[in-house]
From TrEMBL:
PANTHER family (UniProt xref): G0/G1 SWITCH PROTEIN 2, G0_G1 SWITCH PROTEIN 2
Highest taxon, organism lineage: Eukaryota
Organism this protein belongs to: Charadrius vociferus (Killdeer)
Single GO cellular component term: mitochondrion
Protein name: G0/G1 switch protein 2
Stored InterPro entries: G0S2 (IPR016821)
Length: 101
């Protein structure tokens, strides 16, 4: 909205000074390019969810199925992670203070 408030006085000033043809052509060219930029940005924003969805499907198709060795390694990693987890109750007992506050 700020640009509109700045643009209206600028347009009035330009019209009162009666600019030459070159300046009018230059401003018209800039306005048309800005308009096309806005339209292209809107089209890109609207179409981007559809294009990214297609890319995800292509990436999933390219990935090979996991082999047995990979599955065994994954299971071992999962077991190690489960064993490394400590129960929260045991840690809580160590935090208690020996005196009342």
């Amino acid at each position: 909205m700020e640009t509109m408030h700045e643009l209206i006085p600028f347009a009035k000033e330009m019209l009162s000074q009666k600019p030459n043809r070159k300046m009018v052509k230059l401003y018209m060219l800039g306005s048309v390019l800005a308009f096309f930029g806005v339209v292209i940005g809107l089209v890109e924003t609207v179409c981007s969810p559809f294009t990214s969805e297609g890319r995800l499907e292509e990436e999933e198709e390219k990935k090979p199925a996991p082999t047995r060795e990979q599955m065994v390694l994954q299971k071992q990693e999962d077991l190690i992670l489960e064993k490394s987890k400590k129960p929260v109750g045991m840690q809580r007992a160590l935090v208690t203070r020996p005196h009342a506050s």
